[in-house]
Structure prediction request, 190 residues.
Amino acid sequence: MKVQIRPLIVAATLTAGAIMTNTATASCAPALDFEKRRLASDETVRLCEAYQGKVVLVVNTASKCGFTGQYEGLEALYDQYGDQGLVVIGFPSNDFGNQEPGSEEQISDFCRLTYSVQFPMFEKTTVKRGLADPFYQYLADQTGVYPKWNFYKYLIDRDGRVVDVYSSMTSPKSKKLVNAIEQLLAKPAS
Prediction:
């Protein structure tokens, strides 16, 4: 009899685990229901587990672009507002003008050594319409806007809703972006 009971206990445990997993997925905001690999690493991050309840600024980046200096402003935002719940996440992309041709290791070194980037950087990603990574496809579906160049910024609120998109021309220091971030940080998650 013990042999028959044991498989039932294992089956019940596995079923409970599956229910817990499905419940966790169900409570994850769709905008964050993605797994992404950290830049130059094998570590995978489930965005929902890492950033649910935070204000998230998603940026497609490039190391050899006229807007590359925005790394400095993005890092400043992350430094200034990180304790209040802002996270900046960067996704290098070589989609525009071959401006991110390096390996992930080269990109990581460049960001760290040139701009002292501490905000999370993720795998090199395709963001263009028709070729976009599923995460960027979702962002574009929510806003109606695909990145047209490097350093497009998508803003996600604490409830995981994509609330706005900003072009490359919008500096991380712009009043428009900073005010939007501050307003979202002032609101608790629902």
Observations:
- Helices lie at 2-27, 47-51, 70-81, 104-115, 134-143, 175-186.
